[in-house]
Amino acid sequence: MSPTRKVISNKEQIPVNKMLFCSLCKGKLYAPSAYQVNGRIYHTSCVVCFNCRQDVSKSYHTVGRGIFCTNCYQEIYSPICFQCSNPILNNQSVIVHNCVYHTECLECPYCNKRIVLGEEKLPPLVMGLSLNKIL
């Protein structure tokens, strides 16, 4: 089962009315405000990507308790193309027999000719057996 993924565009600011501790560094939160991300409270400076430690003030993705910048999230969690082994970073993909491909990597397993989606005349073998689902 794939992990639950939630995309949040802005950090939710919460007031600090009592002594709280940062979920990342465990330090006391003395500032008049802190940030709550995915139910946990952080210093403003501690809301960083769990992978590369870059600031995620503009947008971030959460997986479990992890906070990731968009680049790291895509690198870690994007599906991998069965043909070229590179991550699929956009929705231009095709699933064939439970394998994910970039649309530009899809080719006939018999003649290695590239299959272009949307062409009117695909071989019956391809139409009947190969293309299961287009994302």
TrEMBL record:
Gene Ontology MF annotations: DNA binding; metal ion binding
Keyword DNA-binding applies: yes
Stretches assigned to the LIM zinc-binding domain: 20-79
Alphabetical UniProt keywords: DNA-binding, Homeobox, LIM domain, Metal-binding, Repeat, Zinc
Pfam families (alphabetical): LIM
Entry coiled-coil feature ranges: none
InterPro entries noted in UniProt: Znf_LIM
Name of the protein this chain belongs to: Homeobox protein ceh-14
Native source organism of the sequence: Trichinella patagoniensis
